[in-house]
Amino acid sequence: MQADAAHRRLRELILAGDYAPGQRLTEMEVSATLAMSRTPVREAFRALVSDGLVAPDGRGVAVVALGAGALRDAYQVRAALEAMTADLAARRQAAGEIAPAALAALRREADAADEATRAAHGATDAAARAGHLARGVAHNRRFHQRIAALAGNPVATGILDRLWDQIVVSTRDSLASPARPAHVAHQHDTLLAAITEGRAADAWAAAHAHVLDTHTAGTHDPEEQS
């Protein structure tokens, strides 16, 4: 359906930063950009409002940016949910319900995220740095998404995806350069080891601490996020 395609494409543009937080979008403008009629764009706007990525603004919508308080709340909910999904994943691993290939894929995402963020941190060319960062952010998100998937709780996965979208839009500037790649890699390794070894309580604690640490780092240093 055209409405689904419009929704998917607009979400991609917002998450990529093509439309900045606070920017107002009109049906006419977006219809021209997407080469679609205004009807699917109107439906896409409604879906994006439901996603929490835009808010009604006159006869159009505006890209939502979470304020400091709302961002803190989002991270607190993300921390609770990611702790829960890590706990569930570790319990499923202990029960022999997770295939070795799934854990291997999780390991690959962690390694790829670390490699990309280290490359970005060491790059001197702005374009190369931006490219490495984009890869790092993508692999990092897939690492956390895979953990949520291993938990086997689609409700939590859906809520986490929405939270991730809102956080990414509101913290784009703080994704500029991970200034602590070794620290983040260590946190990922600790979380992955706890899940792999079926240590549910440790997985819960590692995931919870990692998310809250990410928020604290981003608040105090605009060049630190994971």
From TrEMBL:
DNA-binding in keyword set: yes
Pfam family, one: FCD
GO molecular function annotation: DNA binding; DNA-binding transcription factor activity
Ranges where the HTH gntR-type domain occurs: 1-66
Stated name of the protein: DNA-binding GntR family transcriptional regulator
Organism: Longispora fulva
Entry-linked InterPro entries: GntR_C (IPR011711), TF_FadR/GntR_C (IPR008920), Tscrpt_reg_HTH_GntR (IPR000524), WH-like_DNA-bd_sf (IPR036388), WH_DNA-bd_sf (IPR036390)
Annotated keywords: DNA-binding, Transcription, Transcription regulation
Taxonomy, superkingdom: Bacteria
